[in-house]
Amino acid sequence: MFTGIVEDIGVVSHLDNNDSTGGTTMTFTIPADSLLLKDCHEGDSIAVNGCCLTVTSFTADTFSVGVAPETLRITNLGTLVENSRVNLERAVRADTRMGGHFVQGHVDTTADILSVTPDGNALTFRFQPKNRDMLRYVIFKGFIAIDGTSLTVTNVNDADGWWEIMLISYSQDRVVLAHKNKGDTVNIEVDMMAKYAEKSLAGILGSNSSDARIPLLEKMVQRILGRQ
User: Repeats (Lumazine-binding): which ranges (predicted)?
Assistant: First the structure.
């Protein structure tokens, strides 16, 4: 579990797509003054661009992770090259102040940046998700994790399939999103509470896997008509 408050920006220092296990290993270098690995152990979880990954080895200023093929397919980690910059956050502790929101580190989809528009000293980003179904979990003023950064949705257009967030000046120096441009891809994790709420309501209304995508109001009408 994470909070979406990025601790450091790391750099891909080594990328091995055919390691000793036949998989992919990525090694990241962190800033010299970083505390990210101060209490690190092998097997710990670190979110890399919002993806929960397991530390397989580490030194004072580097750590390595194994990346599964599924992760490479459904996230933007598959596009990383050496010297790419990434957001980093350690797993949350029970005594940590929850400054963002509950982030699992399980990416739901990726999204393309449609536009970046300055607004005073802030930047407004517009995104369109690869999986349009995810839009039903995106609400005005709701939480969303973008490359592992907890952000607030400032505008949603369901018809055209996009939403916007505003990145304040303080955050622009502390997350990788500020350095991305139109056409770049970001990792998206929607608010998991919305998914739990949807599944609970679907259970109450008797939805199953074959009709889970039917809007809940329509399902309620069907049940009422079925009783007549």
Answer: 1-101, 102-201
